[in-house]
Amino acid sequence: MDPYQELANAIVVRAADDYRDALKKLKYNLNHRIALDTVAECERFFRSQWYQALTTVDGEMLMRKLRQEVQES
């Protein structure tokens, strides 16, 4: 795989992991300030042109899937 594509994939995976972890923290404490900030930052990223340049995965769909995964856990 192209090293640039590997880097793009790693950025997206890291953002997804950060988003999932922050959602889990909010599941137990709705006022967790750092988690709230992380969720907002990740959501901006998943909706950004930069995200679209990194991957063809729909950001809105990814966020829905991650929220569903956290709710079901």
Q: Estimate what percentage of residues fall within beta strands.
A: under 5%
For the report, how would you describe the main beta sheet?
none
How many domain regions?
1
Principal-axes shape call? elongated
Protein described:
This protein has one domain. Helix 1 (3-28) packs antiparallel against helix 2 (33-46) and helix 1 (3-28) packs across helix 4. The model has no long low-confidence stretch (mean pLDDT 96). It is mainly alpha-helical and 73 residues long. The longest helix is centred in the first third of the chain and has 26 residues, at 3-28. It contains four helices and no strands.
Give the SSE layout.
Blueprint: H1 3-28, H2 33-46, H3 49-54, H4 59-72
Helix pairs in contact: 1-2, 1-4
Write a short abstract of this structure.
This protein is an all-alpha fold. It has four helices and no strands.
What characteristics describe this protein?
73 residues, 4 helices, elongated, mainly alpha
